[in-house]
Design brief:
Elements: H1 2-27, H2 31-38, H3 42-50, H4 57-67, H5 71-76, H6 84-93, H7 98-112, H8 115-121
Protein name: Helix-turn-helix domain-containing protein
InterPro entries: Cro/C1-type_HTH, Lambda_DNA-bd_dom_sf, Rad_response_metalloprotease
Domain HTH cro/C1-type: 20-74
Length: 122
C-alpha cells in the first residue's frame, strides 16, 4: 500500500531535484557555491539535485531566493507570471561600475537593433 506513495514521493523528489539543478545552472552557480549558501556539503547539494536527499523547508526557501524562482515553481514547475529574466539580470549586474552598466546598456541596444533581433520579432 505505502509502496505506491513512496514511489510517487521519490518521483516528485527527482522532478524537484531536476528543477533545482536547471535553476542553479541558469543563474550560473556551482554546487559548491550553493552548498556554502545553505551551510551544507557539496555532495548534499548533488544528492538534492539527484532526488536522493529530501530538501528541508528552510533550504527550499533559501534556494528559491538564490535562484530567483518561486517556491511554487520549484515544487510544481509552474512558471510564475512575471519574467524571471529581469531578476536574473539584476543579480548578474549587481556590483558593476557605472561605466560597465553604460557599456552593457549600449550592447543591449545593439543586440535589440541587430538584424537577427528584427527577424525573430517578425
Amino acid at each position: 500500500m505505502s509502496g505506491s506513495n513512496d514511489d510517487e514521493g521519490d518521483a516528485d523528489r527527482v522532478r524537484l531535484g531536476r528543477r533545482l539543478k536547471e535553476a542553479r545552472d541558469y543563474v550560473g552557480l556551482s554546487q559548491e557555491e550553493v552548498a556554502f549558501a545553505l551551510s551544507i556539503s557539496r555532495p548534499a547539494v548533488g544528492n538534492i539535485e539527484s532526488g536522493s536527499r529530501k530538501v528541508e523547508a528552510f533550504e527550499l526557501n533559501k534556494l528559491s531566493e538564490l535562484y530567483g524562482r518561486t517556491v511554487d515553481y520549484l515544487l510544481t514547475g509552474d512558471a510564475p507570471a512575471e519574467d524571471t529574466r529581469v531578476a536574473f539580470l539584476a543579480r548578474a549586474t549587481k556590483g558593476l561600475s557605472d561605466s560597465d552598466l553604460d557599456e552593457l546598456a549600449r550592447f543591449a541596444a545593439f543586440l535589440k537593433n541587430s538584424p537577427k533581433a528584427k527577424r525573430r520579432s517578425s
